[in-house]
Write a structure and sequence with these properties.
Layout: E1 5-17, E2 20-33, E3 36-50, H1 56-60, E4 65-70, H2 72-85
Antiparallel strand pairs: 1-2, 1-4, 2-3
Amino acid sequence: MEPIKTFYIFNRVVFRHGDGISELTSVTKESWVDNIVTPEVLCSSLNETPFNKASKELKSSIGVVYKEHITEEQAYALVVRFEKEGKYSY
């Protein structure tokens, strides 16, 4: 059996719904043993913005899925930040 490999991932997806734009941000922890992955969502945040109040940057990111590997320290710093901002959910 191979040792456990752990990865932390920052995820962001922006999508349009009705008359608004939603931005789903999450931090996940993936534990890999051999070819089996066990994902765990550490935190997530859903922000909704009316389309007519959205920035050009937000509008241009509709449909874009962003995924980046981050360090363990960065992952848990984001968990703390989400808690402080009141945007934290499990």
